[in-house]
Amino acid sequence: NGSVLLQWGLRHWGPPPPRPSAALRGFALNCSWDGTYTRFPCDSVELGAACRDYLLAEAHGSVRYRLCLRPRYAPPRPAPPAQCVEFRVEPAAMRDIVVAMTAVGGSICVMLVFICLLVAYITENLMSPALARGG
């Protein structure tokens, strides 16, 4: 459906703080995508401390996405470096063509089965009485 779900855990940023619930304030998500005609950066998206996933809706095919996530801790603890991921979404056009071709192929198969059944019915019920009367 063109959506990308990102999930994460805190183990990527080193040892947990002594009191994780008090020290972790949330996450800062920075993202950008670079398409053929446009480049889009999104400023820091603030996510809550309990958040462990993010849904990127309506991702476009053949576009390079870069998302960077950085946890935000209470002031005594320094901010760790951001963890980034880059990816491309599969082009939707090819997927749509495959789905359409499968649907058309299935419809043709169903129509051929009905035609074969109709020919068998005609041969059995309409042709047989005519042959019986002639003999």
TrEMBL record:
Keywords: Membrane, Transmembrane, Transmembrane helix. InterPro entries: Fndc10. The lineage of its organism: Eukaryota, Metazoa, Chordata, Craniata, Vertebrata. The gene is Fndc10. Pfam families: Fndc10 (PF17742). It comes from the Eukaryota. It comes from Bombycilla garrulus. The chain crosses the membrane at residues 97-122. This is FND10 protein.
